[in-house]
């Protein structure tokens, strides 16, 4: 079978909720993937940061393989020998006190929403059923019914109502607008330290310090969605660390599973996560032994600081080179660490056209919002391969 055969199978039998590039990946290692016909590509997307450590990192594969030979699932009806160790090690890495393990990033966000509402009712004294959470426009926190209820992307929302109430939307990066939205019913503020899906939008300097102060002044929780931005993607363990600010609750996912399986978690203070009691929230697969073993191996990789340093150093190089293309094919470059959103200048190819052209040159990335490309190479990428990918981007955006 060839590429066209596999694409035809997908088109016939799988639901069309994605519009993938016509590349059929069969093997992968490090920063490189190989298609069914033997063509090799640089992966400049990293599964939307799920593959921060590259494809099939040896330490992660070894941890998964060892655990596969022991036990993979017990359900939380019983204890197992990986859960407490995983929670302790992740809490220590993130400077938090308690961990709620889940599976997908959306599950982590849903869990954080439930925790914030329970905390508001039980601790802050907000009447049950009236708590509000302030969110930002252009956010992306997942695809569940509740989460798309506070999305401003009509593609994500259209046709999926009725929507869940209890959310107030303000402009991202506008502390004054957030301040005006606060009421006595406000339980929490839920924000991405950097908005990924929106095009890797970085907030103005000092924004999160103002948000933190507002939360302190009004008795609100600050929830940081670090599912894409966390775990070394921006050069620090958590992207919020760049702002010198601590959240009450963080949601983690994607890279926490090492590119092997879905692993997510809500981490935060004991005073907040401690509001959950037995029977009030759960997950059959959340915190399973295999997930915990992989998650522990991810934490071990991050303890050395190597990946944070690689992201910071290679990220500086990435942004320097991309910045030189502004006015020469690019209109704007945003991001931090090995993460960038680039806007193609008017008159250039669309994001889709650029993605297809890059695939033809052996570089895989994906468009968002028309004329924007998101770049997130694996943190294991070599400087030479990073330059090769940037050279291909320069060639494509200048071609028009």
Q: Averaging pLDDT over every residue, what do you get?
A: 98
Kindly provide the radius of gyration, computed on alpha-carbon positions and rounded to a whole number of angstroms.
21 Å
Strand content: 15-25%
Record field, number of beta strands: 15
Strand order across the largest sheet:
4-10-9-8-7-5-6
Can you write the helix and strand succession as a string? HEEEHHHEHEHHEHEHEEEHHHEEHEEEH
Q: What structural class do you assign from the helix and strand content? A: alpha/beta
Tally of alpha and pi helices: 14
How does this model look, in words?
Helices cover 37% and strands 17% of the residues. The chain has helices at 3-13, 46-49, 58-68, 83-94, 105-124, 145-149, 154-157, 175-181, 207-218, 270-273, 289-303, 306-323, 351-360, 383-398, and strands at residues 25-29, 32-35, 40-43, 98-102, 132-136, 167-170, 186-191, 221-225, 249-252, 264-268, 330-335, 340-344, 363-364, 366-368, 372-375. The strands form three sheets. It has a seven-stranded mixed β-sheet with strand order 4-10-9-8-7-5-6, with helices on both faces. Strands 1-2-3-13 form a four-stranded mixed β-sheet. The chain has a four-stranded antiparallel β-sheet with strand order 11-12-15-14. It is globular. 47% of the residues are buried.
């Amino acid at each position: 079978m060839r590429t066209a055969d596999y694409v035809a199978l997908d088109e016939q039998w799988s639901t069309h909720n994605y519009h993938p590039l016509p590349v059929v990946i069969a093997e992968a290692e490090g920063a490189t993937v190989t298609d069914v016909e033997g063509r090799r590509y640089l992966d400049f997307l990293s599964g939307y940061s799920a593959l921060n450590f590259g494809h099939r990192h040896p330490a992660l594969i070894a941890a998964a393989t060892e655990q596969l030979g022991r036990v993979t699932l017990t359900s939380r009806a019983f204890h197992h020998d990986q859960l407490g160790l995983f929670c302790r090690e992740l809490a220590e890495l993130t400077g938090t006190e308690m961990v709620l393990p889940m599976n997908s990033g959306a599950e982590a966000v849903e869990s954080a929403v439930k925790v914030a509402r329970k905390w508001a009712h039980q601790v802050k004294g907000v009447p049950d059923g009236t708590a509000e959470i302030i969110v930002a426009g252009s956010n992306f926190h997942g695809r569940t019914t509740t989460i798309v209820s506070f999305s401003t992307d009509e593609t994500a929302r259209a046709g999926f109502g009725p929507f869940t109430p209890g959310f107030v939307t303000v402009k991202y990066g506008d502390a004054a607008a957030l301040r005006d939205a606060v009421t006595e019913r406000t339980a929490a503020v839920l924000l991405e330290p950097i908005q990924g899906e929106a095009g890797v939008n970085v907030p103005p300097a000092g924004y999160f310090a103002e948000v933190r102060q507002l939360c302190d002044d009004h008795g609100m929780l600050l929830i940081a969605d670090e599912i894409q931005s966390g775990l070394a993607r921006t050069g620090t363990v958590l992207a919020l660390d760049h702002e010198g600010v601590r959240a009450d609750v963080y949601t983690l996912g994607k890279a926490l599973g090492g590119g092997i399986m879905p692993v997510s978690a809500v981490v935060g203070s004991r005073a907040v996560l401690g509001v959950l009691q037995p029977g009030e929230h759960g997950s059959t697969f959340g915190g399973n032994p295999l997930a915990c073993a992989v998650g522990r191996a991810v934490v071990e990789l991050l303890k050395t600081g190597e990946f944070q340093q690689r992201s910071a150093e290679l990220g500086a190089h990435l942004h320097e080179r991309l910045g030189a293309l502004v006015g020469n094919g690019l209109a704007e470059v945003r991001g931090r660490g090995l993460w960038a959103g680039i806007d193609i200048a008017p008159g250039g190819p669309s994001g889709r056209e650029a993605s297809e052209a890059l695939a033809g040159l052996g570089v895989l990335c994906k468009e968002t919002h028309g004329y924007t490309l998101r770049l997130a190479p694996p943190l294991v990428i070599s400087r030479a391969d990073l330059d090769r990918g940037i050279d291909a981007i320069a060639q494509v955006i200048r071609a028009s």
